[in-house]
Amino acid sequence: xxxxxxxxxxxxxxxxxxxxxxxxxxxxxxxxxxxxxxxxxxxxxxxxxxxxxxxxxxxxxxxxxxxxxxxxxxxxxxxxxxxxxxxxxxxxxxxxxxxxxxxxxxxxxxxxxxxxxxxxxxxxxxxxxxxxxxxxxxxxxxxxxxxxxxxxxxxxxxxxxx
Length: 162
Ligand SMILES: CC(C)(COP(=O)(O)OP(=O)(O)OC[C@H]1O[C@@H](n2cnc3c(N)ncnc32)[C@H](O)[C@@H]1OP(=O)(O)O)[C@@H](O)C(=O)NCCC(=O)NCCS
What we know:
The chain is α+β, with helices and mostly antiparallel strands. It has helices at about 10-15, 35-55, 135-160; strands at about 10, 15-20, 55-60, 75-85, 90-100, 105-120, 130-135.
């Protein structure tokens, strides 16, 4: 059993998920529904937050998602999710989505998203999570940007509720 206060590196909790786009995922243009991609993003990101905190987590905010290119039936969807930043009880996960045509091997980056999660204790209250150690250049940059990004999410949410 790991000690819940020992920090972890970002790569220790990173998740890569692959899905094949089937007819039930698509619209009449044979492109994937945005909501299907969003649910895969949420699932991959939640797994990162759970692997990092070793606690149940809930999504508190999903930053604006835009789709830069269509994902077609038969494409392989690769979702890469990793921990960018940790607050006290909150975690910011960055997600990149790629569509790969398995016959040509051509891969396109279609979406980037940021999601905030909160770890919960046994009665559903926010609980402090371990720190994260960014190691690579990218991880260090994402960590530095993460604090401002999660504060921005919090502000957006507060504005909506006032
Ligand atoms: C998660 C939940 C228990 C947090 O309760 P809360 O009273 O907001 O708790 P706090 O105000 O102490 O916030 C907890 C942390 O989340 C952060 N947070 C809250 N809302 C946020 C938002 N919109 N964006 C980013 N961070 C946010 C806070 O800043 C705090 O971070 P820190 O501990 O790292 O400093 C509560 O908001 C909840 O149950 N939400 C519903 C979650 C859910 O059901 N999600 C599924 C999708 S519907």
